[in-house]
Amino acid sequence: SDYVLQAQPAATDYSAAEANDDFIGEDVRETSNWSVTMNVYPNYTFREFKLNSNAEYLVNERYEDIINDSEKGGFAFNAGVDVRYHLGNNLFLGTGLGFIQTKINGNYDFKVENEPVFDDNGNIYMYAIFLEPVNVNQGIIQTYRFLQMPLHVSYQPWASEKLRLIVEGGFSYIHFLSADGQTIDYQSLFLRELNTMRFNRNMASMDFKVGLTYYPTPNVAFGVEPTLMYFNSSIYEEDSPLYVVPWSVGVNLNLRIRLL
User: Fold this and answer.
1) Is 16 left (phi over 0), alpha (psi -120 to 50) or beta?
2) Biggest alpha carbon distance in the chain?
């Protein structure tokens, strides 16, 4: 009698392969629960700006309009290292350490025509008119630097033999490091160095990213992840009349190395 051999087609359902511990081609899945990821990413930073409720008699009446007309967002550079632990079922828990920046670009071009007069409580109650207006004409770049310590959970299902999706969200502790550049004083409207301002040293942020990771080998992978970060409090101290909350969008480029 004759025998006919039939080749069975390879499975193409990678989620099923993950569950059954089978995989076509080279197995690039986790051989260790731990991995380290090095991240570099440029981002464009924005900010939410408004005056606090205590600002009515503390801030020059022209300040808010000048800031909104003169200051815009800017590009910044960030870097960091993440450590991830594979919980199973494509779920990961991660933390790490990052250096992040926000930038504001702008150009001041206005005239100061009066100065505020204060009462005994430090509140503005009138304005004295200058004999001659003072021109303020200055381009500025403001740079704010922070230390980031994230705690993230991510879901990373396989999309193909060596390509993996990633959806990640979580929170970060943010520690203010330094700021440089110039702004205008919220009372006099004259130029002021940022490093003379009082900043909130301890903050938090909400973080979200979605992207793809490519595994050319079992132990090394490259990722591209569009990223959103939003601070949950003002960068200025709580009693400041200014409320400024940075947020940013960027593209995270990373190198992931699995640990033995």
Assistant:
1) alpha
2) 115
